[in-house]
Write a structure and sequence with these properties.
mainly alpha, single chain, about 0% strand
């Protein structure tokens, strides 16, 4: 069962990472203005999600990948907060959806953390 969860989580991150390239506007709008180089950060985080997602499939790199994803999830959390604060203004997302999304970040961190064991 644990291997299945690693594959599901890995696939989810691979797809999310690919979405940074297919739908960059969504990610660029949610980046706080204080961050530099929005396009570079968008593509770098997409590449990181894809690579770390693939690494979850490999037993020898799974733990490193999980810790990398945890760091990434923490690093992008300010963008999720900004998205919630700007929802309905400059970002075309319902405020309710944006605020409900925030606690899910902690759920994702916990799910990935389980892969470090």
């Amino acid at each position: 069962m644990k291997n299945i969860s690693a594959y599901i989580i890995g696939l989810a991150f691979i797809l999310a990472g690919a979405n940074h390239f297919f739908n960059p506007e969504f990610y660029l709008r949610m980046m706080p203005p204080m961050l530099p180089e929005h396009e570079l950060l968008n593509y770098a985080s997409g590449i990181a999600e894809i690579i770390l997602g693939i690494m979850l499939f490999i037993p020898q790199t799974k733990v490193i990948a999980a810790w990398g994803l945890i760091i990434l999830l923490i690093a992008v959390f300010p963008a999720n907060i900004y998205m919630a604060m700007e929802a309905g203004k400059s970002i075309d997302v319902s405020p309710i959806v944006a605020y409900i999304r925030l606690p899910f970040q902690f759920l994702f961190i916990w799910l990935v953390y389980r892969e470090t064991k």
